[in-house]
Write the structure tokens for this entry.
Amino acid sequence: MTAPIQELRSSRADGREPAVRLDAVSKVYGRELLALDRVTLSVDRGEFVCLLGASGCGKSTLLNLVAGLDRATAGQIDTQGGRIAMMFQEPALFPWLTVSANIELALRVTSSARSTTKKERRARAAELLETVHLGGLGAKRPHELSGGMRQRVALARALAQDADVLLMDEPFGALDAMTRDLLHDELERIWRERELSVLFVTHNVREAVRLGDRVVLLSSRPGTVIEEFPVTLQRPRRTDSGEVAELAAGITDRLREEVLRHARPARRPVGVGGEK
Ligand SMILES: Nc1ncnc2c1ncn2[C@@H]1O[C@H](COP(=O)(O)OP(=O)(O)OP(=O)(O)O)[C@@H](O)[C@H]1O
């Protein structure tokens, strides 16, 4: 189950370095709930990878493991020593702090920024708010902002952590379609400017095709990679374009097939690395 470290660290034949690599990662909750089963997956430096799968297939579990919030039961996860930031569906801002103070707090706990003064952190927070198109709103409290604006603040806070890898767990799932489209454009711009590596979980197949360099499909629980779809459509893409819809339809068919297969499960013993 354990892969040699050298192999995990080596660059790939196509010259791209992985920023995140999972090798045969399994996760069992409690005594017998197998959530992930030998997942092998990588995100290259500067790559945008979208993760799709039926509800409960272990997508959030996978992100939590990569973020180091939980431990894998088996397998290897290598993040190459990169700094990781995570964003969730809920922005989870401190309601009693101003927007600026929420970001300044993230700047304070980021090791490279520990030596900065309060004035410098405030200036940096203002810059980050400009980056997410919220310039001048630093004095507001989170409840004074719309859902989309709050998610922008959460994005600015993630950027404040100076991350190399951004893990995103359905960050736009609760937003209306128009706001989501705007945030797609902004995220794409920021991803390119900062050369981030992104692992983005969504239920929305079109969103995955709109954003991803690659869409990775997980099986129903226990989650394992069943198919990967490279997305070579020219950027910027539109969620409502024919090309995006066409590719999304193919992926949706595959996903539906998987969900139906799971609805008629063949009984098999639960266990890490059991025969399929
Ligand atoms: N802390 C936990 N303890 C026990 N079981 C858990 C825990 N977290 C998740 N699970 C279980 O592991 C499985 C995978 O959950 P997870 O939340 O990772 O799936 P998901 O694909 O993100 O789901 P969704 O798409 O609905 O958000 C589910 O069966 C869930 O009930």
